[in-house]
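Quick one: structure for this chain?
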Amino acid sequence: MSELIPLKAMFDGLKARLAALRENPESGMTTEYVIVVALMAAAAIAIVAIIVAKVTAKANAIQTG
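Got it. Here's what it folds into:
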């Protein structure tokens, strides 16, 4: 499932930022930043769902005999 690699990388980056925030609580994220990250995650999930649907449709259209 190589199409999930960018999504995993994005979430790994987010986890690293959250870990850094726990170490220094005074450097908090703004609400706008959190909303943008959430929208990017939702967009990535939607893109993966679209790709999976298209690949599945193409695979089902292949005649095998």
